[in-house]
Amino acid sequence: MKQIQQLFLISVREFLREPEILFWAFVFPISLALVLGLAFDTNRTTQYPIGLSQIPPDVIKKFEQNPHLKIDVLENKDQVNAFLKKGKIVLFLEFRQNAYYVYYDKNYDNAKLAYLEVIKALSNSSKNQIIEKEIEIAGARYIDYLIPGLIAMGVMNSALWGIGWTFINMRIKKLLKIFSASPVNKNYFFIAFVFARGLLSIIENLLLVVIVSFFFKIPFLGNLFDLIFVYLVGYLSFSGIAIFAACRANTTVVGNGIINAITLPMMVFSGIFFSYHSFPEVLVQIIQYLPLTILADLIRSIFLEGITWIDYIFPLSILAFQGWIFYLVGKKYFLWK
Amino acid sequence: MNPIIEVKNLKKRFKDFWALKGIDLEIPPGTFVSVLGPNGAGKTTLLEILEGLQKPTEGVVKLFQREWTKENEKFLKQKIGLCLQETRFIDKLTVREIMMVFSSIYDVSKSRVDEVIDLLNLNDKKDTYTENLSGGQKQRLALAISILHEPELLFLDEPTTGLDPEARKNIWDVLMYFKKTNKTIILTTHYMEEAQNLSDYIYLINQGKIVAQGTLNQILQQYSKFVSLVFHYDQMALSQKQKLHRLLQKDQELFQFQLFEHEKKIKLVLKETKQLMEIIENWIAKLKKLRLNLYDLEIHRPNLNDVFLYLTGTNLKQESE
User: Fold this and answer.
1) What's the gap in Å between the CA of B276 and the closest CA on chain A?
2) Residues A149 and A294 in one domain
3) pLDDT the model gives residue A212
4) How far apart are the C-alpha atoms of A65 and A61, rounded to whole Å?
5) Is residue A71 pLDDT above 90, yes or no?
6) How many domains does chain A have?
7) Whole-number mean pLDDT of chain B?
8) Claim to verify: residue A126 and residue A176 sit in the same structural domain
């Protein structure tokens, strides 16, 4: 019994005497749970963004009164296409020839839930026929929305785990000290690792693009050069964030904690699995400037809308600027011992 | 000639612990210097400050008349070579691959890499992953990296600690070779023999302070009146040991003592020979009274270890280790 007691105490003492571990083991998961809990609070009404066209004003009023629906009245087909592809709406409702046409992806849960709300609202306000339609616009399916986001998430994970974790691991194993004692150019040191990991990341993501495009027939309306350029800038920006993430951590728990603290919220909020437009507007204003949001939106737009450099240069510059700042701070405070 | 290393009133504090309490050094070029002291004496801290890996809390440190500033960093790192106390390498790289990495950092040729691999006798291991090297081979690789760019000043932090006698001997051969090249070498060690055999000048350091310094002869000359008595016994029970300790502590104004249980010997270091016979007779009687079976008695002039024991009350390292 004494043995169990003493062995138990070893573990508890070791844990309690490392304030950093304490933070990442207690404070971080609780904070994350609180943030996510608030974001997905069941008391908060979930809103499904839908697009409307040619809908009679009294019916629009009904929709507006439904707290579960967030309405956009769309003018033309191009606008409908763009909104669907960007995930700004999950369902489109059109009134023509005395019938309501509901367009949505039956494989997308949020779209199905939006459909139920729409049916409920329509059955209370109109007796016209309701016709269900699968979305036939190339790039407006959920899978079309999901895959570009997954590519962006892959870029983030390659950088954060591939570069950030490598440096943390090197520090834990005391492999950095010998380099710090030499006149190694610190920029070159980081660049070498970023390029080496970047090469693997390109191969990894190229395979992903080819395979998913082939299997899921994801439309690619953009220019391959634009995609590669955005991909590279995105990867370099996340490399800067990775160096920042890895700059001080010297234990596995802390390293894991920091990387998860950066990646997890972005995976949830940046519109990888579902549109971030479902979040309250105030939150959307912040989310749209998260590095992963910028990259996912850009890759998605190149894939599905074929945007060119004029459209992406500004958001891409913001992403690059974020990466550069994180790199400079990370390099300055990088712990070599 | 300007000193290659100049240190004035160097102090280093970690939280509320002073690792270095005011060190002064002046080392001329071409000298092989040993910093000798037990574990925790502050040797590695001193060396890491000299190497620019740590910043001093107080004091001035100059290498080649330059302080460790951002502007001087590149110059100094190119001028010095260092072998850390425990060098770790990336496991899945071969000896030659590691050497090539550092040859690129120091901008040296491939032929120099092969020359150093040959010099350090690592030829048959050059294609071996570093994870498969023995402790001695890893240390030789660390030494190889440290001399790759032919530095003028070489720092070696306990390069033989933890090695078996044969591996240690191999490293000593390499260090002897370095010595012949007239480079300035700063070696930290807790092995008295290492300091005695290799160095031109020795600093004895304990608890963050230099307690003695000079050439081996100067230090031994300075304490030449000291004498060491070593009593050899065959068995000692715990109760005998406790009584012995009490007796030894009573006479501490006459000598410093150390008990080497593993080697079954008691060492007394006397400051002078004046009362030698009296102390011997007295102590033989005391030990007999303790029923310790003595079978040998050595009387000799002090070595560095004895001087250190007398000055600090602690032992450098068991001599037989």
Assistant:
1) 51
2) yes
3) 77
4) 6
5) no
6) 2
7) 88
8) no
Has residue A41 got a pLDDT over 70? Answer: no
> pTM surpassing 0.80?
no
Q: What is the mean pLDDT of chain A?
A: 85
Q: Which residue range forms the structural domain that includes residue A189?
A: 142-332
Q: Are B159 and B139 in contact (CB under 8 A)?
A: yes
For A177, the closest of B73, B78, B84 (CB atoms) is: B84
Is there a single domain that holds both residue A273 and residue A148? yes
Confidence at A142, pLDDT banded by 50, 70, 90: confident
- The yes-or-no verdict on residue B148 having pLDDT over 80 is yes
Structure tokens at B67: 């302080």
CB-CB neighbors (< 8 A) of A178 in chain B: 84, 87-89, 142, 145
d(CA A260, CA A268) in angstroms, rounded, equals 12
Other C-beta atoms closer than 10 Å to the C-beta of B250 total 10
Q: Does B287 touch chain A (CB under 8 A)?
A: no
What is the per-residue pLDDT for A14? Answer: 67
CA nearest B89 in A: which residue? A175
CATH number at residue A84: 3.40.190
Cβ separation of B102 and A337 shorter than 8 Å? no
Cβ neighbours of A182 in B, within 8 Å: 77, 102, 105-106
Domains present along chain B, CATH in parentheses = 5-215 (3.40.50.300), 225-301 (3.30.70.100)
**B89 contact residues in A (CB cutoff 8 A):** 175, 178
- State yes or no: pLDDT of A167 exceeds 70: yes
State the nearest Cα–Cα gap between B159 and chain A, in angstroms.
14
Interface contact flag, B84 A183, Cβ < 8 Å: no
| Same domain assignment for residues A120 and A151 | no
Burial class (CB in 10 A: 0-12, 13-18, 19+), B305: buried
ipTM of the modeled complex:
0.75
Residues in chain A: 337
Buried b (16+ CB within 10 A) or exposed e, B266-279: bbbbbbeeeeeeeb
Contact B53 A182 (CB under 8 A): no
% of chain A with per-residue pLDDT over 90: 27
Which of B74, B87, B106 comes nearest A178 by C-beta?
B87
pLDDT given for residue B317 in this prediction: 59
Pair A130, A245 in one domain: no
